[in-house]
Write a structure and sequence with these properties.
By secondary structure, the protein is mainly alpha-helical. The protein is built from 17 helices and 3 strands. A 3-stranded antiparallel beta sheet has the order 1-3-2, with no helix packed on it.
């Protein structure tokens, strides 16, 4: 950015003329836009919403095609896949975003490029090892889960670990540069390919459940390949950038990359590890007093958890955007400003997740009967209870996600790793107790998850928000948005008999109206920017 175009809160005049070159003012506006935390979060969130809408069109027909048994096998494979992704890829975007944003804040673009090339060399090797490990562990995992037919499903998904490792390096680099569009586009690309190929092959082999599940999981691998190709194309379109193989690398050790990414990986990897334990613990313990343990696990993990994770995925945009924003402030020693930015991110998280959680709680039965029409009878009732029990996990997990990102941006990822480890240990202990009772059954896993996320919030909040006034402000915001959500959901109940989608539209309209009337966000918080054109001059005003 030119030195005469600083953000000072005052109008900045940029003359548009031939001397500046064609399109310069437009590029300036785009650059300014990329630096806004809230706009970056909106881009990621929009991509997440689009991806999840596509994902919903994928999971819903998939559940109807494969049934509870097929989804049970499908979900058994995913925990190991997610764990290996976490080890080889999950910590990469957050860790690299912190390194790249610190380098970009100092104007060191050479180091920024070096981080990308070094990370590709390092993490592609780790991802390849993860793929090989998943391929080799397939028989052992299938035996442990008492589902020998899952071997082929594990191996169909194995190459995806390597591909996501490469994909994550590019996502972290772009996010560190406050360019969130490539991440959003790659997420949409993933889901589009997965939906198109996955539903087709599931229908093609629907008479053979095991073959259908295997083909569907191979579609996931193909979707990751498509997203990698897209990222390579977008990285190659960066203007004025030499190819990576010609890049001169300054001193940048793998040890430094690992020191940043490993704690983030641990924090993110504890949940997938607990999901592996769930896939074994839930099926085995419920199997002692029920004949449909695999199907119940499929309903819990494949249907109920998927619904609850929709608002969490939308809020991921906030977590992704907060890392470079907080990291840039922390690198300059602006600790108070960094904490205020985290608090604002929490406010955005609560604003989005609270109404979604309350809507899931109130309309759980109607939502599940609409989305999962093939799940009826006793299984349908259990699914409705699972969604209702897990509904407020949408808020808790979204807040944990944002707090963990804030800690990473502040250079404290070890605290996030510790809090999640302690929380998951409590979750598994609670499951071991609750799942023994037939009257609780799979609902025990939902209750344990709520306790897990609540513990993680308490620990993360203690270390990320040190100012007591800001802590009380967080709880005040939670109460405020809960009341607003209740006021929006109650009118929606009046039209619930017509259709659940109409209830959703009414709740959303009332909630937005209340947000405007009660001034949920100020203009300064949203960092509103506008411009006025006058001849060949462009007047840009930025509120920070």
């Amino acid at each position: 950015m030119p030195p005469d175009c600083r953000y000072s809160g005052k109008p900045v005049r940029v003359k548009i003329g031939k001397a500046m070159g064609e399109g310069t003012a437009f590029s300036f506006l785009l650059h300014m836009k990329s630096q806004s935390f809230i706009k970056g979060a909106i881009i990621i969130a929009a991509g997440g919403i689009a991806a999840k809408i596509l994902g919903a069109f994928y999971r819903i027909p998939l559940t109807n095609i494969l049934g509870g048994e097929g989804m049970g096998i499908y979900q058994m494979v995913y925990p190991l896949y997610c764990l290996l992704l976490t080890v080889s890829a999950t910590g990469i975007p957050s860790g690299l975003a912190r390194l790249v944003s610190a380098a970009e804040a100092k104007g060191d673009r050479e180091k920024s490029r070096a981080v990308l090339r070094k990370s590709l060399l390092l993490f592609s090797a780790i991802g390849f090892a993860g793929s090989a490990l998943m391929f080799l562990l397939a028989p052992l995992m299938s035996m442990a889960q008492k589902e020998i037919s899952a071997i082929s499903a594990y191996r169909a998904l194995a190459p995806g670990v390597f591909l996501v490792s490469v994909l994550s390096c590019f996502r972290g680099w772009f996010q560190g540069k406050s360019n969130f569009l490539p991440t959003a586009l790659s997420e949409i690309c993933e889901q589009a390919v997965k939906v198109a190929v996955g539903v087709f092959v599931a229908n093609l082999y629907r008479s053979d459940v095991v073959r259908a599940v295997t083909a569907t999981l191979f579609a996931v691998t193909l979707s990751e390949l498509a997203a990698c190709i897209l990222m390579l194309f977008l990285a190659g379109k960066e203007r004025g950038v030499r190819p990576l193989y010609r890049e001169r690398i300054p001193i940048l050790r793998s040890k430094m990359l690992l020191r940043i990414t490993i704690p983030v990986t641990v924090a993110a990897g504890v949940l997938p590890l607990s999901n592996i334990a769930d896939s074994i613990l839930i099926v085995r313990m419920i199997g002692a007093h029920a004949d449909n343990a695999t199907a119940l696990y499929g309903l819990y993990s494949g249907a109920a958890a998927t619904l609850v994770n929709l608002p969490v995925s939308v809020c991921y945009g906030i977590a992704a955007a907060i890392i470079p924003a907080v990291s840039a402030l922390a690198s300059k020693g602006s600790v108070k400003e960094a904490e205020n930015r985290i608090l604002f991110a929490l406010k955005c998280t609560l604003y989005l997740s609270m109404p979604a959680a309350l809507f899931l709680f109130v309309f759980s039965g109607r939502i599940t009967s609409f989305l999962f029409a093939s799940v009826t009878g006793a299984e349908g009732e259990i699914l409705s209870k699972l969604v209702r029990s897990l509904s407020f996990a949408a808020v808790l997990l979204s807040v944990v996600q944002t707090l963990s990102a804030g800690l990473t941006g502040c250079g404290k990822p070890k605290i996030a790793a510790f809090s999640m480890t302690a929380a998951v240990a409590i979750k598994l202990l609670a499951e071991a107790v609750l799942l023994r009772y037939p009257q609780i059954s799979v609902l025990g896993a939902a209750y344990a998850s709520i306790g897990c996320y609540f513990v993680a919030i308490l620990v993360n909040l203690l270390y990320s928000i040190r100012d007591r006034k800001n802590r009380w402000a967080f709880f005040g915001l939670a109460g405020e948005f809960l009341l607003m959500s209740a006021a929006a959901v109650l009118p929606a109940a009046a039209v619930a008999q017509v259709h659940v989608l109409l209830s959703l539209a009414v709740a959303a309209a009332v909630y937005l109206a209340l947000s405007v009337l009660l001034r949920a966000f100020t203009a300064e918080e949203l960092q509103i920017a506008w411009r006025k054109k006058n001849g060949n001059r462009c007047r840009v005003r930025v509120r920070s």
